[in-house]
Amino acid sequence: MSAWWQRRLGWLAAAVAVLVGAVVVGVVRPDVATVHAATPSNDSITVTGVGTADAAPDTLSVDFSVHITRSTVQEALDAQAAAVQHLLGALKASGIPRSRTQTTDLSLDRHYDDHGVVTGYDANETVRAKVRPLTHAGSVISKAATSAGNAVEVGDLAFDLADDAGVVRSARTNAFADAKDRAQQYASLSGRGLGRVEKVTEVVDAPEQPVGFLQRDSLLAASSGAKAVPLRAGEQTLTVRVNVTWSLT
Fold first, then answer.
1. Same domain, 114 and 136
2. Which residues contact 72 (CB under 8 A, 6 or more apart)?
3. Cα(41)–Cα(29) distance, integer angstroms
4. Final residue of a domain: which of 125, 160, 195?
5. 105 lies in the same domain as 187
């Protein structure tokens, strides 16, 4: 074999050795990365806790619907605006400021007779008022319902809790205690311990409490001159759900 071929074979052997070394290094590196991903800093548990608290509602939400029918669009709009002003004036005179009233619906539709002929226009507006204190709710509703003749109707009524800060705190305390109890149980079952809290998120659920038909009728009795039955607000349940992440030791 010539010296030239010997030199070629030597270069080829050296190149193969380098490639084998590169392959070995490439195989070892993923093992190192996997070990790093399993470090204790990423070892945690996330648990959902639920807590509730009860309180007496302090607000009654009432929907007043104003309905006007006139022969022309402009007449319907003008009459509707006048009726709404009378409604808002009655609410203000009863101690309900404009800041606690809100228009929730507004519409203008054609009015048809039984033969499908347009005979006028219906203008509708719904005003939601938050009534408090509850001691005079029946009187407030009566005055507002009769403020514009027969144009005002009383719709949905629902109890609500305007000042819920203290109730939220109680429900939050109960929710966190529930989450911690669950997390401690899971950690114990897996032979681990709880470390520090790493993350907390919460959702507060305070739904309005609709007024039943019988109680609604008793509240509206004052508008016909009858004595209104005393308001029974009962209690409202507020729920807090927390998601808490603890590190494991």
1. yes
2. 120, 121
3. 21
4. 160
5. no
Domain with 152 in it: 59-160
Over residues 141-150, the pLDDT tens digits come to: 888 999 998 9
Scanning the chain, the segments in alpha helix (DSSP H) are: 3-37, 73-93, 137-145, 165-189, 213-220
Beta carbons of 210 and 156 less than 8 angstroms apart: yes
Report the number of distinct structural domains present in the chain. 2
Residues 122, 72 share a domain: yes
Q: How, if at all, do strands 194-205 and 236-248 pair?
A: antiparallel
Cβ contact 58:163 at 8 Å: yes
Entry pTM: 0.65
> Distance of CA 43 to CAs 38, 82, 177, Å?
8, 66, 22
Phi, psi dihedrals of residue 212, rounded to the nearest 5° = -65, 165
Q: What is the reported pLDDT for 236?
A: 87
Say if residue 128's pLDDT is above 60: yes
CB 152 within 8 A of CB 91: no
* pLDDT value at residue 29: 28
| Residue 203 within a domain | yes
- Is the four-CA dihedral 139, 144, 150, 155 of positive or negative sign? negative
CATH number at residue 176: 3.30.110.170
